[in-house]
Amino acid sequence: MNKIDQEIFNIQKVSIRVLEPVANITPFQDATMGPFSSFGISVIRIEDAEGFVGEAPVYNSYTNILETCIFPILFHCEGLTYAEFFPKLYWSIRNEGFKGAASALLGQVDMALYDLAARRRNLPLYRYIGGNRNSVKIYGSGGGTNYTLQELEKEVALFLDAGVDCYKMKIGKDFGTNVAADIERVKHVRKLTGKDMRVAVDVNQIWSCGEVFRFLDAIGEDELAWLEEPIHSAAYDQIEELCKRTSVPVAYGESERTSKIFPMLANCGIQHLQPVPTQFGGIKEWMEVRDLCADRNLQLSSGGYSLYSSFLMTTAKETGMIEYLYSLMYGLEKYFLIRPSLEKGHFHLPESDGLPVRIDWEYCLKENKVVREQVWLKQDVPGYNPLVSM
């Protein structure tokens, strides 16, 4: 049984704080979105009757789901253990669907509850969930499709200097129409990395199978660590066919919001699974994918707000990796009072209680970095009343 199952939460207050976006190190574009000149974060804060707080990154634009489904149960679970009330939270989003924002919001609230539980036990969250080490391997991520060759060189050098031995770059330039440029960019990066660093590529779903093989024929399959989301993430028949025809490990999972899809991905031939904790339907669902990877000898990695979610990878095999999308994530670190440190290709987690990231709220409030805050109090949130009308 997990430690959290017997925890009792008497929640009195919930707030969402939206922080001012920060400029990216380099404006960033991938195959299907961008360019992004800045990146931001919103944080949910859940406070219990004793004044303990749990926090986690959260979507700030779906408060209707929180107010209708999740908060009425969260605020009125007095005397119930987590094992008793979490299923109520889970099934409250049934009509919103388990493959979209509602599932992600459930997971974000769940992460904040885990943080709260670990803080009041005065334990780092990685220890609270049974992690057996305080460091996790990372892979460097970036290489936007808009990067110049010089910008690619600078980013690769940064990761090499940090002891990182794998770099993932974006391809699918010009919305997938410029395969020749993708080939040139990847070959350039492979010359830079040599034997010191593996290279993976992320297509963000834009290509057809024909374009995938045109690219692989030019690059060589043995030159890539993995091929990420090369075709549409919902085209399972095409994904299965692709996996049969290439020896390059194919990676999927970032677009999924529930663990229930991942056995099918594995059955399609996916060798690298990528559940994102801050976009996933709860901590235990992420652990289900972790266990699936262990059982079938598949590669496991996680992205998203990776400094936050690094605690989970301490419970996985040491081959598990956390993505560090430096261009977007680094700027946010000015908001962090506590965070993992990067050394010799690993995130080293702090021994502070709760999540390995803590926002410096004193700084954020003093410098007016909180651009919006919404607060819900227990007395203002009625009990759960499921909506069944269209």
TrEMBL record:
Which UniProt keywords are given for this protein, alphabetically ordered? Magnesium, Metal-binding
List the Gene Ontology MF annotations in alphabetical order: hydro-lyase activity; magnesium ion binding; racemase and epimerase activity
Cofactor dependence is on:
Mg(2+)
Coiled-coil annotation: which residues?
none
Give start and end of each Mandelate racemase/muconate lactonizing enzyme C-terminal domain: 149-249
The UniProt entry, under InterPro entries, shows: Enolase-like_C_sf, Enolase-like_N, Enolase_C-like, Mandelate_racemase_C, RHMD-like
BP terms from Gene Ontology: carbohydrate catabolic process
**Among its keywords, does the record have Hydrolase?**
no
Q: Quick check: keyword Cell inner membrane in the entry?
A: no
Superkingdom of this entry's organism?
Bacteria
What this protein is called in its record is Mandelate racemase/muconate lactonizing enzyme C-terminal domain-containing protein
Give the organism the record lists: Sphingobacterium siyangense
